[in-house]
Amino acid sequence: MRLRYVLEYILFQTMAAVLHLLPLRIVQGIGASLGTGAYSLWGRRRGVALDNLSKAFPEKSSKELESIARGAFRNIGISLLELVWFSRITPDRIRSLVRFDKPDLIKERYAEGNGLLLFTAHFGNWELLAQSVKTNLGIPVHIIVKTQSNPLVDKKINRRRTKFGNWVIPMETSLREVLKALRAGGAVGIVADQAAPRENVAIEFFGRKVPTHQGPAVLSLKVGSPLVALFSVRQSDGSYEVRVREIPTRDLGGYTPENVVELTKRHTKLTEEFIREHPDHWMWMHKRWKHVPADEELHLPVEEHEED
Fold first, then answer.
1. 22-37: per-residue pLDDT in tens?
2. DSSP-assigned beta bridge partners for residue 228
3. For the domain with range 3-307, which CATH number is right: 3.40.1130, 3.40.1710, 3.90.1170, 2.60.40?
4. Contacts of residue 304, Cβ cutoff 8 Å, sequence gap at least 6
5. 304 pLDDT tier (thresholds 50, 70, 90)
6. 226, 117 in Cβ contact below 8 A?
7. Does the pLDDT at position 308 exceed 90?
8. Which of 48, 211, 215, 237 is paired with 193 by a 20 to 30 Å CA distance?
9. Bridge partners of residue 191, in order along the sequence
10. Residue-wise pLDDT tens digits, 128-139
11. What are residue 254's phi and psi, to 5 degrees?
12. CA quadruple 209, 55, 228, 143: dihedral positive or negative?
């Protein structure tokens, strides 16, 4: 076991022990301050966020973009400390913390028995969503997760994710387990808004075509599972309202490469709409557009871009 892993684990457990002594509202405040500090000190990621924002919102002033970027860092700080604190949380606390605007839509699609794909983005607190589906609606969720490099910390995080009866499926070995869960009528939670390999289909996102993960569309169309999007919007009191939106699939007539592209366009467009409505809720410091072809940089004149 690497010494670095042990030290990281000790730091994680110490932070958790301290946070567990505090009310959630104070923990959220500390997370907001932590995010603000990261915005000031983490220049490289701040630069990525501001560059992304300037191209996504060319009509906004520098002051507006900086405010959004600072808010995005605060959101990550709050979400991170909430996750650490969640080993203390109870089902009743989650039910008081999270409200779904259309809970019956999720229940009805799950009851159809064809499996259910719950799609979200790195928006609001995405970690809380799957837990609240189980505690608030009684539907257990298979969560596709990226394995952390530190196995000790990874184990602790997954324990929080599965505290109320959900399961985790490592991203590295996910396909077989996901298909098994969907074909058995289960619910699967998937986050697919980050950068995809170059070979993926390019879909327009904030005015630029960028390779986009097709997994949600492929799974939905191949298995016949409905695709329902969930976006958690943080309220002023620290609670969350989850916006539930079904992404239409029944008009597509089943799996074809063309239908995969169309469904991917639909969930990408919906994701963009929610980000535009609440831009400080999304992870702008991620290099989402790192594989954009030069001729797709729509906000720069051709000759200026060629000089870059």
1. 999 999 999 999 999 9
2. 118, 246
3. 3.40.1130
4. none
5. very low
6. yes
7. no
8. 237
9. 120
10. 999 999 999 999
11. 100, -175
12. positive
Q: Which of 67, 16, 39, 19 is nearest to 285 (CA)?
A: 39
The residue whose two tokens read 């030069």 is: 294
Instruction: Tell me the two tokens of residue 263.
Output: 């469904």
**Spatial distance between the Cα atoms of 123 and 274, rounded to a whole number of angstroms:** 9
What is the mean predicted confidence (pLDDT) over 243-256? 95
Nearest to 83 by CA among 28, 26, 152: 28
- Separation CA 100–CA 231 (nearest Å): 10
Structure tokens at 226: 């409905």
Strands laid side by side in the 98-100 sheet: 98-100, 240-247, 227-234, 116-120, 187-191, 141-145, 167-170
Q: Which residues pair with 118 in a beta bridge?
A: 189, 228
Split at pLDDT 50, 70, 90, the class of 82 is: very high
Q: Which residues, including other chains, have CB under 8 Å from residue 291's CB and lie 6 or more apart?
A: 195, 196, 197, 198, 210, 211
Q: Is the pTM higher than 0.85?
A: yes
In the chain, where are the structural domains located?
3-307
Q: How far apart are CA 129 and CA 123, in angstroms?
A: 10
Whether 258 contacts 118, CB under 8 Å: no
Single-letter residue type at 173: T
More confident residue, 297 or 195: 195
